Amino acid sequence: MAEPIWNKFLTERDKQVFGAAGYASPMGFGKRPALLVIDVNYAFCGDRREPILESIKRWRNSCGEDAWDALPVLAKLIETARDREVPVIYTTGIRRADNWDNGSWSWKNNRSAENKVRLTNHDHNEIMPQIAPGPRDIVVPKHKPSAFFGTNLMSFLQLLQCDSLLVTGTTTSGCVRASVLDAFSNNIRCTIIEDGCFDRSQASHAINLCDMNAKYADIVKSDEALAYLASVPRGLFDLPSGEGMAARANG
After folding, report:
1. What integer pLDDT is reported at residue 246 of this predicted model?
2. Which of residues 36 and 119 earns the better pLDDT score?
3. Measured between alpha carbons, how far is 80 from 86 in angstroms, rounded to an integer?
């Protein structure tokens, strides 16, 4: 079995503490999952694959190559979830044109005014075309890190009678972590797909996975998640019909 990605950042003392304190016990998958894809948009991926230090010159929140490595993983997870009729729920940011509602996001970043600048024909918050939402998928706009804060996500999960989330997206240390903690607080079982998440800081990615694995979620590779998704019976969920969505998008 491969060593966890976070082990190289831990001291021997840390490793012993987690084991002795009883943390990191696997909880297992739920019975009625949804696949959650957090903020995989141009802001965090950029408009082309390039080294992160190049990408952040134009896209200040870009995660560079790590984002592009995750895109084919996400595409396969989404394809499998749709095939099994498992809900696919996306989040992405939403902002006024004048960026007034950026709010507290402006306090810790001196480039936040760039949110008002469109670098290409694509808005920062546009979900990447490689994993674009389909007509039966659900898109939840949000202003803050958590997918739950100030959104309809919890009511949608209740409507679908979901008991668990397969969590992917970005950033591991920010919006993914915030969403997982809120799901945990609502007694929703979470499984984080390691190679389906990414961060601009590789150390933050690894350490936050470590901490969430210890207390709030299971961490698995996409192969394990795909095998689980393939086992979910079709017909569990009353999904959106998707009727009229293409016409609305083009209208």
Report:
1. 67
2. 36
3. 8
